[in-house]
Amino acid sequence: MNDKQAQLVLADGRIFHGQAYGAIGHCVGEVCFNTSMTGYQEILTDPSYTDQIMTFTYPHIGNVGVNDVDAESDGVSVRGVIVRAPSRITSNYRAEGDFEAWLQQQGVVGIADIDTRALVRHLRDNGAQTGVIVSDGMSESDALTMARGWEVLEGRDLVGQVSRDQNGDWDIGTYDLDTVAFETPEQHKHVVAFDFGCKRNIFRKLVDRGLKVTIVPAQASAAEVLALKPDGIFLSNGPGDPAAVGYAVETIRELIKGDTPVFGICMGHQLLSQALGLSTFKLKFGHRGGNHPVKDETTGKIEITSQNHGFAVRDDNVPEHVEITHRSLFDGTVEGLRVKGRPVFSVQYHPEASPGPHDADYLFDRFADLLK
Questions:
Q1: What is the pLDDT of residues 146-185, one digit of tens each?
Q2: What burial class does residue 324 get, using C-beta atoms within 10 Å of its C-beta: 0-12 exposed, 13-18 middle, 19+ buried?
Q3: Is residue 173 part of a domain?
Q4: What distances in angstroms separate CA 2 from CA 76, 110, 333, one per listed residue?
Q5: Residue 287 a catalytic site member
Q6: Residues 161-188, buried b or exposed e (16+ Cβ, 10 A)?
Q7: What per-residue confidence (pLDDT) applies to 1?
Q8: Are 335 and 328 in contact (CB under 8 A)?
Q9: Distance separating alpha carbons of residues 11 and 100, to the nearest angstrom
Q10: Residue of 122, 269, 287, 350 marked catalytic
Q11: Which of 120, 149, 178 is a domain's end point?
Q12: Is 323 a catalytic residue?
């Protein structure tokens, strides 16, 4: 690891000193934390983390290296990385490279050897805030000015920044470790999936159910989607403030007037909620991790889920035709809903995992069954 000194400067004036990790330079973004014990590569390549600086609460990061298969997008989405004790060695038969070298290739600035427990407690007590990682000699006072002057995520449309600009197809299923290859099931039904910043593993889970996937940009109109003659419509995850993506809300409002099944995840859940008349708000420090318990209010069962969101849906004005189906057992926030008597439902968490548990994998089966 580089022996060059680095600093993390938070907008409220708190400063953490450590060692430079990854690329040398400086970066600014919203500092957040993820409590997952595995899957650091999947987390860093998830477009939902756009414009954020990721703190890993698990101390040892980098142990299994990196590989092309586990990437959830074409590049790293975060602005910076914070770790406690990066691994000095790479030990995994699937590894194709070293984690820090990969960060350097991607131009991602990081800091290591800081007390991540103290940082997480600070964020939990004071809420998410902007921070700057510095390893290129920028003064702490200049870093503080940068942190305080950066435009926060609330009110910003990042979906338009990360979404694709033209239609595309996806026909690859999940990766089989036994055959060391991606599955390619026969496809029977057609799903049109909105790309609000989607993870690849969601597309793979849809293909696993025999669904042909056509991916469309976030700005696609209802008429353009219906012209593709979908058997089902999928609303993906994505970054930023859902309240700033009004164009997608209007499109979804039009699409749910028909009988085509609709399934939303994370940002898709928030946008669908707005289309149904609900509103969203920013959480104090967000839900990010692979161990979040969620209760299915319709069955009473508890699922351990993978989560990544900084905004949530309000439940103070739920329309009569909408049912809240899932709630977080951490803070009671809305984790899922459905439209009564209609094939329209969504969840706030990530049933595709990657990383995380597979308790909620059944939701993809539910969607596929609606298409049949």
A1: 999 999 999 999 999 999 999 999 999 999 888 888 988 8
A2: middle
A3: yes
A4: 21, 11, 42
A5: no
A6: ebbeeeeeebebbbbeeeeeeeeeeebe
A7: 58
A8: yes
A9: 27
A10: 350
A11: 149
A12: no
